[in-house]
Recover the amino acids of this structure.
């Protein structure tokens, strides 16, 4: 065993971790080798320096301090600690939760009024305005700019024509110009019994603006072109009124200026308000015919003023005859109900409600059929049926038809 | 009533079952070893007291993880070394080690000779300085083996290294300590 090997094991000899034979061998070497012996002595001396380091007493009350902290850790956290500690984690989490809940609440709050508005398109606060107020505002239409020639139409009128397809159909069915309002009224009441186009309602007849007999398409070919692509779209008759009112044309030459002034034409918005007021009043005092069921669509029809056209419609509804298309839309019983409701509405002057079930793809033809009876004032999609899986999957469409009585014919102006 | 007579394993079992008072027995039993280990590694009395408190608190919180594979003291030494090493790193990055000669140390041989007393204090001061300048690994193994007299097997368990590695590392650490202290003692011997 050489010195290098011995010196590597001196530490083990010092710790007495060598077996007896090995320890004896090293001891023999140390006895004969003074450098290795000096190394061993030095190592033992420095090891003693460490092991002789005195033990230091911990501070007084160390154990009590530790146990106090231990017992603190054992106690369950308070409500405040559970809710908010650690702050750096809990506060951001809670803030995020608050923001999410607030956003959701705002979203739901905004969505709900939209659903309500889609059911009732007539604003109650407008409809409650008294007709007299509308009459007070009416003279202002007399001051509205009038077109000087047949080819000139205001920009507003062009826009309106572009928006509504029924306006084009309406104008097609209107009489040529240069008729007095009286004559025009007669023509409208008895015109084209079998016409499929929209017929002017009583309200429209009353509106001085619609008294202007010249069709817009004749006046402005450009406007007509713009309107033609939209012919398939439906539009509420009240808007047709507005269109007519916004496109005033020169009065007939044979009509006296006094008579035109005496008409006191209504502003388009006021005219709509009047119509809406009457509609709501009719709804309030109405009668329900048939079983009230949840409907997919709701339609409100303002019946035309009774006359020749009325009779023609009644005949068609009763006989069927050539109107095979109508028979395919509703059942015989429902057709009868419709006719009864129409008669009731005319006789009693109160609204009648009828439920009709038709094939889903027959909705547009059905609307045209109703347009023969009068003008469709309200057309609403019932949001409740959005969640009705059966109704959605079915080919059938349930329609709630409210038949509004015709508006009373205004008294003729005294100046005529 | 504290069960001072029972072993560490039983105390640990009781603490694990919710008997907090039994932990006090363990604290009383091991506080001196843990405190001295921290003090010799850090060279600062207050820091050592703080670290020792942290060690016991940490041991209490994680006592349910103690499965009894090693002795409780071995497990406690491991926690103590981890805490003290972390503190030593943070202290060395901010300031020099504070090595007080403030009279808190007890002279081992109990001599009353002031000259001898002063010499002892001076030696202790130099040794402490050497421990604090040593590589932490070397300091730890010297303290465990030479100061705490922990068996090789337990040192291996605490440091998570094989026993053979403990022996070789201990030999290297002692050589390093001798190199640190040699200039002082060589000059001292020459003077005497």
């Amino acid at each position: 065993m050489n010195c290098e090997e011995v010196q590597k094991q001196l530490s083990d000899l010092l710790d007495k971790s060598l077996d007896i034979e090995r320890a004896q061998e090293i001891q023999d070497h140390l006895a004969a080798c003074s450098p290795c012996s000096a190394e061993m002595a030095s190592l033992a001396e420095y090891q003693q320096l460490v092991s002789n380091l005195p033990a230091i007493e911990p501070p007084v009350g160390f154990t009590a301090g530790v146990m106090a902290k231990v017992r603190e850790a054992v106690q369950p956290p308070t409500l405040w600690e559970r809710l908010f500690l650690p702050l750096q984690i809990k506060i951001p989490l809670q803030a995020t939760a608050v923001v999410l809940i607030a956003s959701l609440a705002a979203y739901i709050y905004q969505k709900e009024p939209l659903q309500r508005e889609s059911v009732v398109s007539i604003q109650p606060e407008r409809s409650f305005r008294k007709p007299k107020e509308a009459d007070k505002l009416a003279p202002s239409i007399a001051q509205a700019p009038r077109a000087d020639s047949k080819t000139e139409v205001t920009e507003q009128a062009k826009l309106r024509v572009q928006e509504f397809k029924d306006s084009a159909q309406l104008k097609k069915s209107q009489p040529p110009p240069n008729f007095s309002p009286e004559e025009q009224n007669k023509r409208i009441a008895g015109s084209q019994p079998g016409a499929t186009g929209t017929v002017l309602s009583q309200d429209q007849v009353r509106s001085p603006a619609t008294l202007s007999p010249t069709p817009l398409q004749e006046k402005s070919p450009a406007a007509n072109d713009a309107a033609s692509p939209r012919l398939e779209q439906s539009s509420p008759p009240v808007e047709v009124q507005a269109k007519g009112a916004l496109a005033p044309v020169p009065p007939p030459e044979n009509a006296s200026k006094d008579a035109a002034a005496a008409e006191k034409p209504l502003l388009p918005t006021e005219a709509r308000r009047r119509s809406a007021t009457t509609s709501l009043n009719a709804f309030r005092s109405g009668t329900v015919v048939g079983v009230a069921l949840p409907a997919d669509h709701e339609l409100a029809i303002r019946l035309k003023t009774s006359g020749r056209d009325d009779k023609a419609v009644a005949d068609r509804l009763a006989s069927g005859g050539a109107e095979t298309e109508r028979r395919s839309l509703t059942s015989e019983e429902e057709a009868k109900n419709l006719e009864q409701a129409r008669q009731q509405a005319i006789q009693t002057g109160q609204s009648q409600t009828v439920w009709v079930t038709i094939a889903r793809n027959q909705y547009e033809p059905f609307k045209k059929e109703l347009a023969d009876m009068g003008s469709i004032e309200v057309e609403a999609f019932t949001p409740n049926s959005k969640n009705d899986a059966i109704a959605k999957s079915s080919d059938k469409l349930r329609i709630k038809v409210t038949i509004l009585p015709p508006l009373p014919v205004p008294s003729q102006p005294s100046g005529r | 009533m504290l069960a001072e007579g029972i072993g560490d394993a039983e105390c640990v079992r009781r603490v694990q079952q919710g008997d907090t008072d039994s932990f006090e027995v363990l604290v009383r039993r091991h506080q001196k070893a843990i405190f001295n280990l921290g003090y010799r590694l850090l060279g600062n009395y207050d820091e050592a007291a703080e670290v020792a408190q942290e060690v016991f608190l940490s041991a209490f919180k994680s006592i349910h993880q103690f499965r009894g594979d090693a002795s409780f003291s071995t497990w406690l030494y491991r926690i103590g070394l981890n805490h003290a090493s972390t503190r030593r790193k943070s202290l060395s990055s901010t300031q020099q080690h504070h090595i007080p000669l403030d009279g808190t140390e007890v002279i081992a041989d109990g001599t009353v000779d002031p000259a001898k007393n002063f010499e002892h204090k001076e030696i202790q001061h130099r040794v402490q300085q050497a421990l604090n300048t040593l590589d932490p690994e070397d300091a730890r193994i010297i303290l465990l083996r030479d100061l705490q007299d922990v068996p090789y097997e337990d040192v291996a368990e605490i440091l998570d290294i094989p026993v053979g590695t403990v022996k070789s590392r201990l030999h290297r650490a002692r050589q390093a300590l001798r190199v640190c202290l040699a200039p002082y003692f060589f000059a001292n011997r020459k003077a005497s």
Remarks:
- The longest strand of chain A covers residues 396-404.
- The radius of gyration of chain A is 47 Å.
- Chain A has a mean pLDDT of 65.
